[in-house]
């Protein structure tokens, strides 16, 4: 009945629905960046300063935000309302129906869609990180080990994770890749451990080693052997998803190798595995840790990725998973729906 009521309101008062959406988006930006000025809010939201001023005046009179000398900030009542506002926003945009469709078509446990497109709005990536962090936080207390991959989205998950006493062991899902330490799985695992007052382990093995070099490093370091074995038994695996072409370049693959992946139809990459749109794993990098081939053996699987440009990559990787929870954004979800 509630959903029917919303549908009726959308038909008879679309202008009102537009106002609600604009005010929700402004509140999200204020919550993320408070205290924030009206000019900055206009830039973040894409609305004119006049429209922003009109909306925030109403929100102030309603006791949801307050004006300070440094800018606009959330009132406690506004913070309390944000979860309910998100649910309302999802329904207004039919995102709950999109979640259901994607979950059923891909055979996943759960799908969560956040509003917007992270390809052109950085605050959407923050929202992806927040939703992923909340899902991870909900599991603390019932699990002992968590493995996390590297990447910018996973770094955002770590940043958005609330401080708590989890008392778990945080592990990198894979060895290291690239030169940016802040998006390495080892670094992200250490950050999460610090926030959750937990222990962590590290895997000091880079990607791309030959089989003989990989085995030599493992045999020479008993601690690494133990850490890799613990990662393989992790109860929670949380990871990001990348486009195959972009990840191949990041890994320093040759033009010949990238062309070969393209000719095979690789569209997505995660945990060292390159997948086609049908979910078939076409190539895997040489590394230790978790891969998509073994993902089904982990009780809790969470993938976090968004942006319309990643839609094919997300479909390919989640079809390869055959399980788990997907956190994505509206931009990616709309394209995924068109493809399924």
Could you explain the architecture of this structure?
The protein is an alpha/beta fold and about 350 residues long. The strands form three sheets. It has a seven-stranded parallel β-sheet, with helices on both faces. A four-stranded antiparallel β-sheet has the order 8-9-10-11. Strands 1-2 form a two-stranded antiparallel sheet. A hairpin with a 4-residue loop joins strand 10 and strand 11. Helix 2 crosses helix 5.
Give a nutshell description of this structure:
With 340 residues, this protein is an alpha/beta fold.
Q: How much helical structure, as a percent, in the residues?
A: 40-55%
Biggest sheet descriptor = 7 strands, parallel
Q: Using only CA atoms, what is the Rg?
A: 21 Å
The end-to-end distance, rounded to whole angstroms, is 28 Å
Q: Overall pLDDT, averaged?
A: 86
Uncertain segments: none
Strand arrangement, major sheet: 3-13-12-7-4-5-6
Can you write the helix and strand succession as a string?
A: HHHHEEHHEHEHEHEHHEEHHEEEEHEH
Number of helices: 15
Structural class: alpha/beta
Q: What's the total number of strands? A: 13
Described by the principal axes of the CA atoms, the overall outline is: globular
Provide the β-strand percentage band. Answer: 15-25%
Key attributes of the depicted protein:
single chain; 340 residues; alpha/beta; 7-stranded parallel sheet; 4-stranded antiparallel sheet; 15 helices; 13 strands; globular
């Amino acid at each position: 009945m509630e959903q029917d009521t919303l549908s009726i309101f959308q038909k008879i008062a679309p202008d009102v629905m537009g106002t609600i959406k604009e005010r929700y988006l402004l509140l999200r930006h204020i919550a993320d960046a408070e205290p924030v000025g009206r000019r900055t809010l206009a830039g973040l939201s894409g609305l004119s300063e006049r429209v922003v001023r009109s909306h925030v005046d109403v929100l102030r009179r309603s006791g949801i935000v307050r004006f300070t000398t440094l800018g606009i900030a959330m009132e406690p009542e506004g913070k309390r309302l944000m979860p309910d506002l998100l649910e309302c926003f999802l329904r207004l945009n039919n995102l709950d129906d999109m979640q259901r469709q994607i979950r059923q078509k891909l055979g996943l446990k759960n799908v969560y869609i956040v509003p917007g497109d992270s390809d052109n709005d950085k605050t959407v990536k923050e929202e992806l990180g927040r939703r992923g962090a909340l899902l991870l936080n909900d599991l603390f207390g019932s699990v002992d080990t968590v493995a996390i991959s590297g990447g910018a989205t996973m770094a955002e998950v770590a940043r958005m994770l609330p401080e708590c006493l989890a008392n778990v062991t945080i592990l990198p899902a894979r060895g290291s890749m690239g030169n940016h330490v802040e998006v390495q799985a080892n670094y992200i695992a250490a950050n999460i451990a610090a926030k959750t007052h937990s222990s962590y382990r590290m895997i000091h093995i880079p990607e791309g080693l030959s089989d003989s070099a990989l085995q030599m490093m493992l045999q020479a370091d008993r601690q690494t052997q133990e850490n890799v074995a613990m990662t393989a038994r992790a109860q929670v695996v949380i990871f990001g998803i990348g486009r195959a072409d972009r990840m191949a370049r990041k890994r320093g693959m040759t033009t010949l190798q990238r062309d070969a992946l393209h000719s095979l139809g690789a569209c997505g990459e995660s945990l060292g595995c390159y997948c086609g749109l049908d979910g078939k794993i076409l190539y895997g990098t040489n590394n230790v840790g978790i891969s998509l081939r073994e993902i089904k053996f982990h009780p809790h699987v969470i993938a976090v990725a968004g942006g319309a440009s990643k839609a094919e990559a997300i479909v390919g990787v989640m079809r390869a998973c055959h399980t788990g929870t997907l956190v994505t954004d509206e931009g990616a979800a709309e394209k995924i729906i068109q493809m399924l």
